[in-house]
Amino acid sequence: MAVIGVVCEYNPFHRGHLLHLQRCREALGEKSTVLCVMSGDFVQRGEAALYDKFARAEAACRCGADLVIELPLPWCLSSAEGFARGAVSLLASLGATQLGFGSESGKIEPLRELAHALRDPCLTEEIKALLAEDPSLSFAAAREKAAQAMLGDAATLLRRPNDILAVEYLKAAEELAPDLELLPVLRVGAGHDRAREGEGPCSASELRARIRAGESVAGEIPEKAAEVYKREREAGRELKDTEALETALLSRLRMLEREEFRALSDAGEGLGDRLWRAVQEENGLEEILTAAKSKRYALARLRRMVLCAALGLRGGERRELPSYARVLAFDGQGRELLRGLGETCPVPVVTKPAQVRKLSPRCGQIFALGARAHDFYVLGLPGRDQRGPGEDWRRGPWILPDVPSEQGVHGEGK
């Protein structure tokens, strides 16, 4: 079976994502299976998602994905490198034969050359030297400068958000899944985090801004996904107000000691202390981020650190790879893939949350972190009756309605 893996956040799922899935399936044939590893309630940019992981997984499955697996929280709130490693390891464990990813360049060889170079210890030492020489230099700038000295113009790929992630996927695949075939899909429409100019799909960031401003996104979100989001909105499960979680977040941060900030995974070079001081002195989240920021540290890194601090991640959780695969949604082809895993899958596949209690302590610890994060996430929802705790321990995967329920799998929806 040809299984094409996709790493995604779908925040929200839009027509650019639909086009990507269609091109992936076209490349391998209609009988191929699309396996998605998707971020949970909090995404890699260090923010809460517009809709929770259950709704986003359902929307994806209604629009062409066959099986959606949750990327556990520690890897969602990681750097691009950690995010890619966690996702690629899950794809490989679940039998993906290809990895289809968006790319501004759309060409595999320059990306492969750059990925190989970035795994060279000599380049790593050069990056460290550049950072030591100029304290104001960001890691991204130092990496590009070192890569340019080695590869020339190929290093400019590191200025493009999708190509940056693509390089990390290739690095992870080279180490963890050397047989995984890489399939770049040329990105069309608006660039990452940019407004659309001309034809083509909007970016997810533009759509989030429009939804939160109460503007129409008609035509930008596929009909089946739009139905899911409409249902969530009407039920009070759309996290439209980005400040809705701020009080809960600040209350958590202000209860933490300095040492807990120092223990965060990205807290080196005194950044943990800077963030702790900002929490003690500033009134709101944006003020904290502004006070802690410098030229060296990207804002997304600080946002991830703040969430990690509030949600109880202290850095050690992601030193290893994800130790289980939680199923969020599937259709008929996804069920066939799950059936075919049998005893060959190197990690346990979780379809009922209760199964986690029989797994290793590490699985239980990581799942519990995600469950607590979901309890935190729902505090920002506008529907008061949607803020109850414990849903992560009760919720089974969404199943496409024409797929019969079987032992080991929960029924459809809530």
Model description:
The structure is a single chain. The chain contains 17 helices and ten strands. α4 (80-93) packs across α8 (161-176) and α6 crosses α7. It folds into two domains: 3-110 and 183-241 and 320-399, 3-Layer(aba) Sandwich (Rossmann fold); 246-317, no CATH class. Strands 1, 2, 5, 6, 7, 8, 9 and 10 form an eight-stranded mixed β-sheet that branches. A two-stranded antiparallel sheet has the order 3-4. 46% of the residues lie in helices and 11% in strands. With 414 residues, it is α/β, with parallel strands linked by helices. α16 links the parallel β8 and β9 (349-350). The longest helix is centred in the last third of the chain and has 17 residues, at 361-377. The chain is globular.
Secondary structure layout plus pairing:
Blueprint: E1 3-8, H1 15-28, E2 33-39, E3 42-43, E4 47-48, H2 53-62, E5 67-71, H3 73-76, H4 80-93, E6 98-103, H5 108-118, H6 121-133, H7 139-151, H8 161-176, E7 181-186, H9 204-212, H10 223-234, H11 246-254, H12 258-262, H13 271-281, H14 285-292, H15 299-311, E8 325-330, H16 332-341, E9 349-350, H17 361-377, E10 398-399
Parallel strand pairs: 1-2, 1-6, 2-5, 6-7, 8-9, 8-10
Antiparallel strand pairs: 3-4, 5-8
Helix pairs in contact: 2-10, 4-8, 5-8, 6-7, 11-15, 13-14
